[in-house]
Design goal:
Blueprint (H helix, E strand, L loop, with lengths): L3 H13 L3 H6 L3 E6 L11 E4 L16 E6 H7 L3 H19 L4 H10 L2
Parallel strand pairs: 1-3
Antiparallel strand pairs: 2-3
Amino acid sequence: MVSRARFEELVAEAMDSLPDWVLRRLENVEILVEDHPPRREPNLLGLYHGIPLTKRDGGYAGVLPDTITIYQGPIEEDCADQAEMAELVRDTVVHELGHYFGLDDETMERIEDSDP
């Protein structure tokens, strides 16, 4: 188990590792860390909540930030050490950012399966 501060560092490191073209396109989105996901989804590692970029139009103004929540508890439970945890945190951040960019789970799975 790692402290909340260390887990938040892992999330920040995951964000810092992203390509510049991704970081430049992030707008009105906040990355959060919570201990546990909602009870109805106890194994959830992360959750995107908001309006994907592909759905935003000219009327998108003055809205609260989209959120990406990374859940520390289930990620810790799935990992044997901090190196594995850092990798799973990054994978989770990338997955949730995929939703922010308008990709659904099926599309992301196809992309992941085609990755050499």
